[in-house]
Amino acid sequence: MAIRLEKGQRINLEKNNGSKLTTVCVGVNWGAIQKKGWFGMTRTEAVDLDASCAEFDAEGNIIDRVWFRHLGSNDGAIKHSGDDRTGDTDGDDGLDNEVITVDLTKLNPKTDKIAFVLNSFQQQDFKTIPFASIRIYEGTPTVVKEVFATYDVANDPTFAGNVSMVMGIFYKRNGEWKFNAIGEPTKDHDFESTLKTVKQRYL
């Protein structure tokens, strides 16, 4: 696919050889915050970002949620790698701290959209979180084949002052899956309120 999406762009999930993309991952990478303490000592402040998603039907009703309290969708199509509550403590290791994997072929037939959101559990401002970034790609949690959307949360002033965002939405049109790269912060403070914003503004 070899494409880098801008916010608001939409794409067909079709590879260069004409086949359809069936397995996608949403990965989030971030670091713990290093703060100066007494006598020049540095202390580490854990950062707990939460990548989550929800399946919606064509009427905008929630079918299922996948988040740190429910790591797999009931249809078996979506899997969460697990809750990372600290972030990288020794610098950027280049790996995603949390990954959500979606097999589009296994989704509940009623699923019309899948919205991905990110929340800062401890309400830490996105701008203060080291190297926080998001990538949406073809592959598995351990093998990245092709990245087709990235967000540099830590260095994008759009996210400063916020603790929640909508990453993007997979949606079905005429039986084909497409992707909307939203990448916008919201004024919400938890997963459920962010989903309400998704329903009001993006579905």
What does the model show?
With 203 residues, this protein is mainly beta. It is built from one helix and 14 strands; from the N terminus they run ββββββββββββββα. Strands 1, 5, 6, 9, 12, 13 and 14 form a seven-stranded antiparallel β-sheet that branches. A five-stranded antiparallel β-sheet has the order 7-8-2-10-11, with no helix packed on it. The protein has a two-stranded antiparallel ribbon with strand order 3-4. A hairpin with a 5-residue loop joins strand 5 (49-56) and strand 6 (62-66). It is globular, with a radius of gyration of 17 Å.
Number of helices: 1
Low-confidence stretches: none
What is the count of β-strands? 14
End-to-end Cα distance, whole Å, is 25 Å
Query: Which secondary-structure class do the elements indicate?
Result: mainly beta
One letter per element, helices H and strands E, the order comes to EEEEEEEEEEEEEEH
Sketch the major β-sheet. 7 strands, antiparallel
Helix content: under 10%
Strand proportion, as a percent range, falls in: 35-45%
Assembly form of the protein: single chain
Give the radius of gyration: 17 Å
Shape: globular
Mean pLDDT: 91
